[in-house]
């Protein structure tokens, strides 16, 4: 039997036609037997023989024709069978002259049977033989048949032959078209990624598509309800049975979808999506149509995306999102019993130096090794996560504060162990912040975000206390952060309300005391605390990044003031304005463009602007610093190194910097008349400036002795309280008004 349901329908059709033809033959024989019994005299043996022949024909109906119809020998047997029936009909009619009228009816039944199974040529052949037999019977009759009756009978038989031949031809064309459609459907199903089954409510699998072999690896003929249950994963068997019951009982057209795991023929378990539609009321299907699709690749992708969303790619540990989720679950789990939750944040000290000096591969190796060392110090129930960069988080339940401190010591000791990165041995340290809380505190327990914030504050406290240590959270830390936030907000409001102002301190020519320039110094006119010096707000502005907009504002104010002095006083044409650049401002990406824009807007001569950079700043990322200095120099401004002598620049670096001025730090000037070493250092700076063809400016000159000593050492310019304190622009205007050109 064919596995294809559509072919099975054709087999059933042919078998039914054979049985129908058999019953027709039985009917014709029985009609003849009745004729013999009623009209023939004697011959009961002939009637018995005919009844026996009819019984033999009827017995053929019981044969399993579905098994035989696809055999190659059957068409030949059928032709022989029809030929024998036609010969018997012809012999019977020849013997019984009165049966001639029954001959066309018998022929019609035989031709109708052949049209359902034979080809149109074979039908025409039987029709021609029937007509020829009829004509032979007419010609041999004792009582002649009228020509009109014979002609009409022949015409009728020819018409029946033509109709049956056309029927056979049309059937053949329809069969060919149907087989073509079937082949297309079979090809589509065979190459489909879905296995399609038709399963009756009782569990009988009435159809299995060829794609079952592709999707599941099984022969479609093997697919039974028992097989389906056997290949379903035990964890999903009960769910699958409930799903099947829902499909069967859901009513006509009901569709349900489910995911399950099944075993392929080779033994591998795969994920499948199963879609079932109830077609139990549709004839002749009367089954539920089940589509099975392999979704293993999709499930693996989903699992990988989930892993990436909740796991760190380098270490495989939970990331920030998953750690936050576990923290929330830990709080909920311990809420009723009032258990203690301990959170530790671990941040490696100076990790950036490892990346910058040894490369990012070494940095990744350090992160991975640190993660392993931290994991080795924890219990199986503890959670270790990487929050990002060089920061780790540890969640520990049910330990005391003393035990948390002991854990902190163990973690620090593990991190301190030497580690070989490439061909270098490195010793690292870390700062750890520890925060604890009882899960039963409050209605909902501690807030996860607040606990993380507390541990973060404690970690920064550990860094501020010298690093390589841990610190327990103290509420005073939060108060300090809040105070810093309020101060930052105050600075932001001060910028918005123009509460800052610029004071200017004269820079003079030491031999003549002539004004040659001024240094712009920012002050804060606080509405409550009065005039504040830079030490009260510059460190905060530097740490928060507000120094960038503040420094930009100072630069603009100083340039605009210089433009006003130039327009009002002829003597201003020769003075210069020194403006300090902070580290954050110098590293700001748009610094050069901002300076160029302000110079263009104010119209000042770039040669009158001196930008001061600290010596320590110059030594950070030297190549990038030289590039930025070169771009500033290209604008026409002059560059000065402030606080020179307090840093660690070497002569080889110093000669690479395109600077114009060295400013001697006031710490050397303070002891220049009392400390021989300070005088020696000051003289060395002056001589270095001469060797490099740089101007020198001494800061913080407060006594005449300092002034005299600096002149004797050859220092060209100076500034300090001896000459003038920083003051408003009007004080400089007075000096410029009294100056002679």
Explain what you see.
The structure is a single chain. The chain has 741 residues and is α/β, with parallel strands linked by helices. Helix content is 55%, strand content 18%. It has 28 helices and 21 strands. The protein has an eight-stranded mixed barrel, surrounded by four helices. Helix 16 links the parallel strand 11 and strand 12. Helix 13 crosses helix 14. The chain is elongated and about 170 Å long. The termini are far apart.
Short summary:
The chain is α/β, with parallel strands linked by helices. 55% of the residues lie in helices and 18% in strands.
Features:
alpha/beta; eight-stranded mixed barrel; five-stranded antiparallel beta sheet; elongated; GGDEF_dom; membrane
